[in-house]
Amino acid sequence: xxxxxxxxxxELVVVIVILGxxxxxxxxxxxxxxxxxxxxxxxxxxxxxxxxxxxxxxxxMVTGNMAATTVTxxxxxxxxxxxxxxxxxxxxxxxxxxxxxxxxxxxNYTTPTAVTFRPTNGGSATCQASYNGTTxxxxxxxxxx
Length: 145
Known about the structure:
Blueprint: H1 9-31, H2 33-63, E1 70-72, E2 78-80, H3 92-99, E3 105-108, E4 115-119, E5 128-131, E6 138-141
Antiparallel strand pairs: 1-2, 3-4, 4-5, 5-6
């Protein structure tokens, strides 16, 4: 009497087929993770921009000098703002200083009314947050992420 050890060929084929089916259904879910991560990063940057504008504008109002063109934060960071509104201007000394960190993003300050914040990996005109240094408005484009 012999004792059989191991798996039969049929059992191995069934396991391989099941693993193939699982891989085929799970793969599309993981492919979209990169896109979802970029969208989340752009939305996070937009939230950071809005918060920075609100904090700097509040600090500006608290000082009471509506003619001032700079705001000094608690940590001694100097932020250039629009006189009368306290909205950070669209430059590195304005919104860039208010944010303090733009790590992971490529920032283009060429046009102060349309400063763009694009993810370093995969950012484009259809995957970015934009800041208007005059109005403080933040817009988000995530269609091409």
